[in-house]
Amino acid sequence: xxxxxLVTGANKGxxxxxxxxxxxxxxxxxxxxxxxxxxxxxxxxxxGSGLDVHPxxxxxxxxxxxxxxxxxxxxxxxxxxxxxxxxxxxxxPALAPSATGVEQVRAVLETNVVGxxxxxxxxxxxxxxxxxxxIVNISSGTASMADMGDPAHYLxxxxxxxxxxxxxxxxxxxxxxxxxxxxxEGILVNAAAPGACDTDFxxxxxxxxxxxxxxxxxxxxxxxxxxxxxxxxxxxSDDGPMRW
Length: 244
Known about the structure:
Elements: E1 4-7, H1 13-24, E2 28-33, H2 36-47, E3 53-57, H3 63-76, E4 82-85, H4 102-127, E5 134-138, H5 145-148, H6 164-182, E6 188-192, H7 200-203, H8 213-224, E7 235-237, E8 240-241
Parallel strand pairs: 1-2, 1-4, 2-3, 4-5, 5-6, 6-7
Antiparallel strand pairs: 7-8
């Protein structure tokens, strides 16, 4: 049986490209999507290219939705080999911390951190049945406190924000904790920084970029296909390990 992968938030952007690239490597890929119609359309489009992909309704903020998804993976495949936690939201754009409401931050953390915990825990029994399970959490360069606090680094000059960068820094910390727990079981857990890419996500923030979603997906695919001697508990971009 082929390798079974689940990518959350896979109906567009970097998530779609991660799913497409994993499927191009011969994996059977489940496309997690909050909107079932969009997930079905994406799966149909990718199947038109000969890829083995399957839509899966999945809202990471809804426990019942996550439980149903885990049950479907159990019933259809009996295990899971790769989990890519890609689903995420940005929250209110360019609001300074002093202008950001608590509920705005809470909503971002619910998707970007709690959602990852919820999905990972639901899928972990299935991942433990794999001989070489991999978990990849999609983080961001803005999660690097070293870079964000370094006046010589371009990230230092981004507007200060209380939700998205904070959520991704917390996601990095969660990644390290999972890696510590699962290391002895051979399950490798890493965080990927895809870089700022031209997607709906960045366009909504008013950014014009030339880096493609396919380019951003490459590091996640690399971490999802690590060999048994690969790193765990790390934070990586195309250029290698990133500063925390």
